[in-house]
Amino acid sequence: MSTMNTVGRPTAPNQVQSKPATLTGGRGLLQNEALIFEGDGWGKTGVDLPEPKTDGSDLGDLVRKDPIGLPGLSEPEAMRHYVRLSQKNHAIDLAIYPLGSCTMKHNPRLNEKMARLAGFSDIHPLQPISTVQGALELMDTLSHWLKTLTGMPAVALSPKAGAHGELCGLMAIRAAHEASGQHEKRRKVLVPTSAHGTNPATAAFVGYTVVEVAQTEDGRVEVADLASKLGDDVAAIMVTNPNTCGLFERDILEISRLTHEAGAYFYCDGANFNAIVGRVRPGDLGVDAMHINLHKTFSTPHGGGGPGAGPVVLSEALAPFAPAPWVVHDADGYRLIEREEDEAVQAFGRLCAFQGQMGMYVRALSYMMSHGADGLRQVAEDAVLNANYIKARLSDLMSAAFPDGPCMHEALFDDEWLKGTDITTLDFAKAMIDEGFHPMTMYFPLVVHGAMLIEPTETESKAELDRFIHAMRLLAEAAKAGDVDRFKGAPFHAPLKRLDETRAARSPVLRWTAPEGSNQAA
Amino acid sequence: MRYLPLTPDDRTAMLAAIGAKSIDDLFVDVPEAARLDGPVDLPRVAGELEVERALSAMAAKNATAGATPFFCGAGAYKHHVPATVDHIIQRSEFLTSYTPYQPEIAQGTLQYLYEFQTQVANLTGMPVANASLYDGSTAMAEGVLMATRVTRRNKAVISGGVHPHYVKATETVVHAVGVETQVLAAAIDAEAAVIDQIGPDTACVVVQTPNVFGTATDVTKIAEAAHAAGALLIVVVTEAVSMGLLKSPGEMGADIVAAEGQSIGNALNFGGPYVGLFATREKLIRQMPGRLTGETVDADGERGFVLTLSTREQHIRRDKATSNICTNSGLCTLAFTIHMSLLGETGLRKLALLNHEKAVATRDALAAIPGVEILTDRFFNEFAVRLPKNAAEVVDTLAGHHLLAGVPYSRLAPAAGMDDVLLVAATETTLDADIRILAKALTQVLGA
Amino acid sequence: MKFTKDHEWVSLDGDIATVGISKHAADALGDVVFVEVPEVGKTVAKGASFAVVESVKAASDVYAPVSGEVVEANDALSTAPETVNSAPQADGWFAKIKVSDASELDALMDQAAYDAFLATL
């Protein structure tokens, strides 16, 4: 023999009985990471800047003298800090992220590349108009796509998120009623009980009284109840379609007819437009205003909670009231109308300092152009197909909230099937984490007990759906078999165990402060 | 299509599993009259190359800040952002994650938000900050609304030095809820004028420092006057870097700080997305809008972070929420906190001094031009000048010579009668050569 | 002790009514994290919102079961909101109200009636 394992390195795993916890709290690739304030970064910087030639003394007493309390990190330390943190996050790039009503779909990297073109990212909102013709062309092109896809004549781009879009839509409605002298008597907004919480919040914010509309047994707006509440004291209805139960409002044409007959406007919450894009135009449903969450339907990144963008498409009746600024295209090229007094319109004002979320406009247009009209139609079809596939494959074990007929882009289950197991929707969700999946949306919509709302989106492959369904079935069977601890204590395998939200809310600690006796800043 | 994984065979198999004959079976709830037969009238599927060409062509039509001598400010500032920032915010785990509703698998986001809240609180000199709002202007609007909730009064007195677009965005929203505003006439250096307008019905006074004309003001006396009358002081800051050199709003008695954080970590982006900073006093936190991250422990006693005090928010309080806001400015917040962590206090102070230095040098160069009058005495990195000509026309002319000379005040407030006022900003990115080019070009245009 | 259909309780001693939320309500809310009690001296009308109680996942208005003037508020709840869970119908009281019309209590349910009402929910 010429080669011998002389150093005694074992080449097969040992068999041991116990699984000791680690001594440091680190676990394999998962690192413990302290707060930046707890390190040795006081006085450190990771940015090399030239020495200033001034000390600011020309500003006298205006100069800040006390320590600010900002530690610094060198570049390698910064990379480590944020990479370590990142590894404690679930992400759509890792696995299916089936949060119903949130639409976690793939974020194409072409979008990111395009948004970073200097011609879009390195231009100032108040540069002379002659120097930003391409930016205005992009806004105008995006507007054209949004108007064509929705079948609506106008769009206000500037709202900075879906909820901001709702505000925009309701303010346009209010302005229209003011213009026709009807505002004083039209003080109610009708909202179905299944609505997203922003709907009543927005209506109340704009000064309206919210009146709830009942829901039918099959998860839709109860038209008779709506009709009985419509009258000359109603300013608008706010209906999500497809709704938050994942269902298309079958009576939508009747709903819009009744609404218009009563002299009210139809605000459609477009959060779920991704289910119908390319197959249905909201303009054909009688919608007067609808916001579009660009991150949901048009793939701009969710980014851990933003930034969003919520353009609002408007009907002929509401278009004159759209807020400034907006883009006009004429023989001289593109112009940006920044003040309503510039044009013979009745804009209700302005929603933010500048033009809205340009960076998101670029990403959304990049996505739309990639798909094209045909691809976008396929988006809706695949989103709906994927959701129905999940519903079909899980309905024997779990209880679908509305079993009859197809769903749209999301499948809704209730907790009826967990009765008697002592396991809650929350427990079930936390056990999904252990299996490597992000939980579905839970306890929403409020109209379904223990709701589990699953939205796969069109960017999941059949293989990933099958992997998800397999895990859900194993968990459901374990729940029914009385494997209670697996759920009650979950998650066991996540970076942290279940967190104490009560403690966080009872005595809020919202910032780091230096330990007593330390001489660190602030 | 490259973003859609399903194959025709997959679709057939899945329809069979569902028990549907065709995809149309799944859309039966759509009224027939509203069904589209085929694709709408827009271009068809396009490859990466084609999309990149089309969008690059649009981008190429714009004059970029980095390619020209550049002096625009007025609420959006050109700063250098370290390469690390953009790399990290594009990591999948940050870019493609959602709001941290499941804290056990979102500690990455929650921890950086907690660090962000601490950085913003310390930067503004306030006890607490939220996890950000859309931008500075919407933060100001939320601040005014919060002040009316806290004081149960109904009127805001707004200084003439506040950015006119911030005022407009605020008025649009607060008027809808019936809050009154009193906006003082535009003035280069008159923040203290708000003191005489404070009355028993005043919920808050709003001042900006440095103001839209660049003037930096010690607002301590304004805070005292507001507090004596039971009103709150809201301090607006549109250039976050200024707080690295100037006394913090908290130090001067602010109750609410509404600031634009774009300057740290974020590009100009033609106006958005930006990041609204919002900070306040401890006793007011339950009236504060927006998301908040708080510290807690997990079942094993390990420290962790969660979204907290969410009962203030719309998804629980619905029509009684403090605000309808349902998002923060996620990635922009991350960019801010990374850049701030790289700078640290040492770097931030240096950066602020460099900004001031460049602005002073620009001021000195412009002061030497015949006919140019410097209007701002005490400034950070931006100041106003009066030109002997219409400022917008001068700026347009200079743009034709590949020079972005600043923002004419009339662009923000056409009716203010200040058509000859130009706002000029300089930052650490401004080169001495840029200043020379500006001075020379301005001399020529004004002499012509 | 008498109860409303909105799950407030009221206990009268002379013309001073102590009010709070029922055990049923406290259990339904879950862990209470915050209570906003009314200011002393405030006049409240029967049926109007006069306090707020929050758990992690829910926020509820508390309606005055009787009309009158608030003469004492349970400020201890601001630092110990959990008392609402541990002793909802004792130390977890919200406020004491000097009642303006004691006959308003006549329309409220006694314990037996309230228990029967809960059974219908």
TrEMBL record, chain A:
Residues 1-25 are annotated as: Disordered. Residues 1-21 have a biased composition (Polar residues). InterPro entries: Aminotrans_V_dom, GDC-P_C, GDC_P, PyrdxlP-dep_Trfase, PyrdxlP-dep_Trfase_major, PyrdxlP-dep_Trfase_small. It catalyses: N(6)-[(R)-lipoyl]-L-lysyl-[glycine-cleavage complex H protein] + glycine + H(+) = N(6)-[(R)-S(8)-aminomethyldihydrolipoyl]-L-lysyl-[glycine-cleavage complex H protein] + CO2. The keyword Oxidoreductase applies. CDD domains: GDC-P. This is glycine dehydrogenase (aminomethyl-transferring).
UniProtKB/TrEMBL annotation, chain B:
Coiled coil: none annotated. Keywords: Oxidoreductase. It is an enzyme of class 1 (oxidoreductase). Its EC number is 1.4.4.2. It catalyses: N(6)-[(R)-lipoyl]-L-lysyl-[glycine-cleavage complex H protein] + glycine + H(+) = N(6)-[(R)-S(8)-aminomethyldihydrolipoyl]-L-lysyl-[glycine-cleavage complex H protein] + CO2. The keyword Oxidoreductase applies. Residues 1-440 form the Glycine cleavage system P-protein N-terminal domain. NCBIfam families: PRK00451.1. The glycine cleavage system catalyzes the degradation of glycine. The P protein binds the alpha-amino group of glycine through its pyridoxal phosphate cofactor; CO(2) is released and the remaining methylamine moiety is then transferred to the lipoamide cofactor of the H protein. Belongs to the GcvP family. N-terminal subunit subfamily. The glycine cleavage system is composed of four proteins: P, T, L and H. In this organism, the P 'protein' is a heterodimer of two subunits. This is Probable glycine dehydrogenase (decarboxylating) subunit 1. It comes from Brevundimonas intermedia. The lineage of its organism: Bacteria, Pseudomonadati, Pseudomonadota, Alphaproteobacteria, Caulobacterales. The gene is gcvPA.
From TrEMBL, chain C:
Its cofactor is (R)-lipoate. Belongs to the GcvH family. It comes from Brevundimonas intermedia. Binds 1 lipoyl cofactor covalently. This is Glycine cleavage system H protein. The glycine cleavage system catalyzes the degradation of glycine. The H protein shuttles the methylamine group of glycine from the P protein to the T protein. The gene is gcvH. Gene3D superfamilies: 2.40.50.100. The modification N6-lipoyllysine is found at residue 57. PANTHER family: GLYCINE CLEAVAGE SYSTEM H PROTEIN (PTHR11715), GLYCINE CLEAVAGE SYSTEM H PROTEIN-RELATED (PTHR11715:SF3).
